[in-house]
Write a structure and sequence with these properties.
The complex is a heterodimer of chains A (249) and B (378). Helix content of chain A is 31%, strand content 24%. With 249 residues, chain A is an alpha/beta fold. The relative contact order of chain A is 0.19. The chains are: A alpha/beta (249), B alpha+beta (378). Bound molecules: adenosine-5'-triphosphate and magnesium ion.
């Protein structure tokens, strides 16, 4: 049952990093049930930055949560980087997230007691790295993101834009093949939002990595290779992004 | 990840101290009350410990503790002496007598009568006078706390007299003695003198104190004495255990202290549990983010448990330390009993471990069930 108006979207869909087919998601049951996704098909290619846009409540967060492996779909199939997420057990999914996915959250979700470098090192620590090695690697990534001067500052000592850069460093430090960003710029002013997206475009987008950015923010549409528009639990249109993608090799 | 957990824990000083305080409070209360309890138990056996020299105590079969005096016939001494393996044996009187002071008022005293010839079982920590002076007529040696109790504020002075059951007693020495449960003055005298002081009774011998011959185990000689005489014979260690066992089983002391300790345990668990749970709830998004980023439940569990154990260790250290400090500070006070054998910190450690584990249960439940998807929610 394919109810979206947009079909498989990527020409090289067999090699797609993300391949979502007929996904529905129901929250609750009976009278109070909400159908957050009503049959979504979506492909994201390697090396692509896909933006997911649409009005509040249309299901963007629900969809990326399913793709990132933090939420189970009610029906449909989800293949990410060769893994069948629907068939995956809980602990294998945890390992999948640890090894393959980088997260950037709207509210940063940095640990307030850790320094910038320590925060950025968390995915490596989860993967079992030694503290010193992990923090050293995190410091390298922070330097590339222009935060070399702020390595030992606590999140409370950083601006919102700087905190989001720490979060991006954290999302990239373990070189995941899928990067999921939910509203990465909506807590930031226009200037910091632009800087953040430029960094994501410049550092995060790699030939072997798929990037999904959920956003409301029309000012950053230009950074997308493609834009998938959602409405009421469906993808209603997919358009080419207005530029940045063309500029990349 | 464990150091991350510790940083999370100690990052908020106020919260951290709040959690530690709950555990510390419980540890302090448990250790302090257990210490007072042990101190009281020590009081009950102080006279067994103070009676230096003999390895064995022989008494009536039905005696249950050291103050439970069932007089023996004087002839029992010779029957004990006749048991093979007994090196020597002497008589020992212990009883409570009423005395009348120069000033005319009455005092209860603990009277101890020691062997006339050898003075075995006599005081060993004399402050004034000498043990040999007991050999003079009507002579007694009193403990310093008793002296201060009946003649408060007066300097130690030998030669003072008072009456014991209408017989004159002359003070010839002052000694240190361990405090007793009743905290009456303790008065030492010769056995023959004690018989004069004591109320008229058909039998007056309280205990036979005996020493095993060199190379023979006291336990073995005790068995032989029991078999030969039908009396009860205990090593000093056995008599101490029996006396403490009696108070544990038959007095309300363990119950009263048990209730206090239990309340400390409950309150500590409640405070620590609540503050720790609030701390976890406050950090629930952080845990959610860690789970989203691929931290498994095992990792999260280890983090929470290590936080709980850290809090437990610090709270335990401070609490037991304060309890020990309390014991040190009150050591000079006559009215307070405090004793901290290794069992007290050990029991407190177990209690604290249980407290932090129980306290972290709710938190563990919470973090294990947190849905990593929450981190995407504003
Ligand atoms: N855990 C949940 N339980 C119940 N309903 C939920 C839950 N999560 C999402 N929903 C519902 O699912 C629908 C889609 O929510 P979702 O968060 O995916 O929207 P969104 O497009 O991300 O919105 P926004 O732009 O405001 O973040 C909404 O109607 C929402 O109320
Ligand atoms: Mg959303």
């Amino acid at each position: 049952m394919v109810t979206t108006s947009a079909g498989p979207m990527s020409p090289e869909s067999t090699a797609a990093a993300v391949r979502v087919r007929g996904v529905t998601k129901r929250f609750g049951s009976g009278e109070t049930a909400t159908l957050a996704l009503r049959g979504v098909d979506l492909d994201v290619a390697h090396g692509e930055l896909l933006m997911l846009v649409g009005p509040s409540g249309c299901g963007k967060t629900t969809l990326v949560s399913i793709v990132a492996g933090t939420l189970e779909p009610t029906a449909g199939s989800v293949r990410v980087l060769g893994h069948d997420l629907v068939a995956m057990s809980g602990s294998r999914k945890t390992r999948f997230r640890r090894d393959e996915v980088g997260f950037v959250f709207q509210s940063f979700n940095l640990l307030p007691a850790l320094t910038a470098a320590e925060n950025a090192a968390v995915p490596l620590l989860i993967a079992g790295w030694r503290r010193s090695a992990a923090v050293a690697r995190a410091a390298e990534v922070l330097e590339r993101l222009g935060l070399g001067e702020r390595l030992t500052n606590l999140p409370s000592e950083l601006s919102g834009g700087q905190q989001q850069r720490v979060a991006i460093a954290r999302a990239l430090v373990h070189a995941p093949r899928l990067l999921v960003c939910d509203e990465p710029t909506s807590a930031l002013d226009a200037e910091n939002g632009r800087i953040t997206m430029e960094l994501i475009g410049a550092v995060a987008v790699q030939p072997d990595r798929a990037v999904i950015v959920v956003t409301h923010d029309a000012r950053i549409y230009s950074f997308a290779d493609r834009i998938a528009e959602m409405e009421d639990g469906r993808i209603v249109a997919v358009t080419r992004g207005s530029g940045a993608g063309e500029g990349r090799p | 990840m464990l150091w991350v957990a510790w940083k999370m824990l100690t990052g908020n000083r106020v919260k951290y101290l709040g959690i530690v305080f709950g555990v510390m409070f419980a540890a302090l209360l448990i250790a302090q009350q257990a210490g007072v309890f042990c101190g009281l138990m020590l009081l009950t056996i102080s006279q067994i410990r103070d009676t230096a020299g003999p390895g064995m105590w022989v008494m009536d079969r039905t005696v249950q503790y050291v103050d439970d005096i069932k007089p023996l016939a004087d002839t029992e001494l010779f029957r004990v002496k006749a048991v093979p393996g007994v090196d020597w044996a002497v008589r020992f009187y212990k009883g409570i007598v009423r005395s009348r002071l120069e000033e005319g008022h009455f005092e209860q005293m603990i009277l101890l009568g020691i062997d006339d010839a050898t003075l075995v079982g006599g005081p060993t920590r004399l402050l004034m006078g000498s043990l040999a002076d007991l050999r003079t007529p009507d002579a007694v040696i009193m403990d310093d706390a008793g002296y201060r109790r009946i003649w408060p504020g007066e300097p130690f002075r030998l030669g003072r007299t008072f009456e014991v059951n209408d017989h004159r007693a002359v003070l010839v020495g002052i000694t240190r003695a361990s405090r007793t449960f009743q905290s009456f003055p303790i008065v030492y005298t010769r056995y023959s003198q004690a018989v004069v002081f004591a109320p008229r009774e058909r039998k007056v011998l309280s205990f036979v104190l005996a020493e095993p011959a060199p190379g023979v185990a006291a336990e073995e000689v005790c068995r032989r004495i029991e078999a030969a005489t039908g009396l009860q014979a205990l090593t000093q260690e056995q008599f101490i255990r029996k006396t403490i066992g009696y108070y544990l089983a038959k007095s309300g002391i363990p119950l009263n202290f048990g209730i206090t300790v239990f309340l400390g345990f409950l309150v500590g668990t409640a405070i620590a549990g609540q503050t720790f749970y609030l701390f976890t709830v406050e950090n629930i998004r952080q845990y959610g983010a860690l789970k989203a980023m691929g931290a498994g439940n095992g990792t999260i569990l280890a983090m929470v448990l290590s936080q709980a154990l850290q809090v437990g260790l610090v709270g335990y250290g401070v609490g037991v330390g304060l309890a020990a400090l309390f014991g040190l500070c009150t050591r000079g006070l006559v009215r307070l009993a405090f004793h901290m054998p290794w069992q007290v910190p050990a029991i407190t450690a177990v209690a604290v471990l249980v407290i932090v584990l129980v306290a972290s249960l709710l938190s563990i439940r919470r973090v294990l069930f947190v849905d990593p998807a929450i981190v995407f929610r504003g």
